[in-house]
Amino acid sequence: MTLLNLESLLDRLSRWDEDQLARLLSVRPDLLHQAPGDLTVLAIRMSSETSIRAHLQRLDAPALRLLSTLTRDAAAQTPTPASEVDPETAASLETAGLIFAAEEPSTTPSTWETPARMPHILDSLQAQLPQLPALLQLDPPVQGTDTVSAAMVENASLSVISDLLDDVAELLGLLDHSPAATLRTGGVGMRELRRIVAQSTRWGAAPGARGGAFEPGLGASVGSDASVGEIGWLLELTASCGLIELNDSQAWAPGRLAEQWSTAAREHQHQLLVSGWLIAPRAPMLLRGPHPTSRIAPTLALDRQRGDAEALRRVLLQTARDLIPDAAAPRRQLYVLNLPEDDLPGADALRGTLLQRLGWDRPLLRARVGHLLPWLVREAERLGLFAVGTLSTTGLALLDSGSSAEASEGAASGTPWAAGLAHLALQLGRSLPSQVDTILVQSDLTAIATGSLSAPSATALSDFAQREGHGAVPTFRFSTESLHRGLARGWSAASMLSWLQTHSLTPLPSSLSTQITDAARSWRGVQIAPAGAWLRVTDAEQRDALMQHPELSGLGLHVLGEDVLVCEVGPAALEQALTMAGFNSARTANSAPTQSRDSGAPMLGSSPEHTASWTLEASPWEHSRVTSPHQRAPDAEEVAAAAAALRRAGLAAPSSDSSVASDVIGTLRSALAGRRSVTLTRVSPQGSTHHVTGVPTGMNAGRVRIRVREDEGEAVVMLHRIAAVEESDVHHRHEGDR
Questions:
Q1: Domain spans of the chain?
Q2: Per residue in 48-69, pLDDT tens?
Q3: Which residues pair with 691 in a beta bridge?
């Protein structure tokens, strides 16, 4: 095997026809961003370290093993036996431009050529990933024989989804009253997570505790480490969906979308959560509490950004789907997950066919992110996409969107996940049991729901009762503290009793009625409520007509006194509504026209009927400097047009500046590994250029250290200031030859 320089690679490409060029651009789409102007630019890009590394990530184990074998034999100057070269695998590598068949006749069994940087790239990958050679020697994965009941998978998935929706609703309620403060360095720290846990009955109640208020404090006795980690993950998830935002005090609190989400159908609530998780450019968001042997980064900190996170989730889900040939066949167990709550995961945190298939299809990916895969699987479980060690019906609906015409029509969003998310919502809407609005009030001052409560009923009960335990069928306990909280949130004793009498299937016990009355008598506070405008109506009959008019029912009219009413909309909207209803009105002198917050049309996504509204087109985290390497796959017409244009353009004169400028990082890495001298072209802030010649000694944090040849001193050059890199040893050798 011989190494090809740029001129030799150009000679090979110049002999390719349009079909060969089109196949190259199809398997290596990064070469089309932006479209190369001629074959010279194409050769520069395809031989760059950045592009080669990107394609190596997509190679399966046989292809990467063959490429490593050919490169190893080339370094040892020994021929590769024909028996070790699979023709089909070699053809796929040749299509991608990673190897070329030797054009001159040779007596050696197999003679191949490869771009000059290939040996260095493979050596550096094996140095960075010591486990890679062992992965390349593994046998093909074999499907396991253990099967799981489809009904068990379905029930487990629906149960997890119901719990997740309740958890998110609970967290939004906690943050609405007490936002999560951030550290000065960014993110939500462990003390703040413990505070949130201590305020919740779902995560912070001590064993055997029944209701009551929590004592202030952040001690470990309130809430387990797993609960702290759960809160951290829910914060990450809701932020990735846009449900919580940073307020003016730099604390995380529910945003405007949270109010719409709380009234949406459950399938659309789940759709938004999955949508935000899929496209979030974040490292695995699930984390545990503090371990003795680890230091967890703060939740919602920028250092948890990861540009390839979406691609990792896509590969994980699609690999699981490929292992299920028929959705109607008995479901086989794909993995076994072992994540301890009180310690770091071990080497067996994830086992099974799923991990083996990932290692076979993407050995580089498994070697690079193997430590993250258990957490990604666990997050998919928390969203109901995985259950009982296999892909759930919900996960299948997300990945098999093409089978649903309804989903395709409803997916108006441009995101690649839009059709799958629409299909997921349709499937979940048919699977989840109907919600109820009825409860059973018992004499022990508790209320038990008769099923999964609707959002309005669950919100109302949460205002003046304390939820106990988990599960789709909740139990609520009434106490003096919970009733005082309800009074602070705008309820009165009469309204609480009226709501309970309307929704309870059993008569209210006298003890509860007495407790509500006593709580209202003992509560001391000032009630506040929003008001956009006030009305003065001296005629009692006209006041009653206003309150009962159907066209004014949406104004939120309330009687404050004998002749004074308030409403929730502003004066302009109130005047327009009164005119449309046939009432005369007059503004006071100090009532300036204002625009009502509710005067416009409802925001996109406020209607649960519009499924596409609940699919995010962009992640709220995309304002970050971390960008995703995922690129849109070009269509066949785009590839064919680019291949034809390249054939017409032909070759351009190779420019050393253009070649190295396109791969500054790769050239510096190669020179750093070989301790070779380079010449940097540096651009100053004023726009002038000058050259620095020397040997690179280190590169990190966006800068390169170089030992200058002239004075043997060391200079530091920022990478974004480097316009070009050339290996100066080669340049000086050519000068000497001339």
A1: 2-136, 148-431, 439-522, 533-581, 656-737
A2: 888 899 899 999 999 999 999 8
A3: 681
Single-letter amino acid code for the residue at 639: V
Q: Say how far apart CA 148 and CA 155 lie, in whole Å.
A: 12
Question: Can the peptide bond before residue 57 be classed as cis, meaning omega within 30 degrees of 0?
Answer: no
Q: Which residue, among 691, 684, 688, 674, has the nearest Cα to 726 in the 3D structure?
A: 691
Residues 353 and 144 sit within 8 Å (Cβ to Cβ): yes
The model's pLDDT over 347-376, given as tens digits with 9 standing for 90+, comes to 888 999 999 999 999 999 999 998 889 989
Identify the three-state secondary structure at position 279.
Answer: helix
Query: pTM of the predicted model, to two decimals?
Result: 0.75
The CA–CA distances, whole Å, from 341 to 161, 202, 225, 415, 613 equal: 21, 17, 7, 35, 37
Q: Are 419 and 398 within 8 A, CB to CB? A: no
In angstroms, rounded to a whole number, what is the distance separating the alpha carbons of residues 429 and 520?
Answer: 40
Distance CA 408, CA 427 (A): 13
DSSP string, 178-208: S-EE--TTSSB-HHHHHHHHHH-TTTSPPTT
Q: Beta-carbon neighbour count of residue 101 at 10 Å? A: 12
CATH of domain 656-737: 2.30.30.520
Cα-Cα-Cα-Cα dihedral sign, residues 379, 380, 383, 384 = negative
Encode 448-515 in three state secondary structure.
Answer: EECCCECHHHHHHHHHHCEEECCCCCCEEECCHHHHHHHHHCCCCHHHHHHHHHHHECCCCCHHHHHH
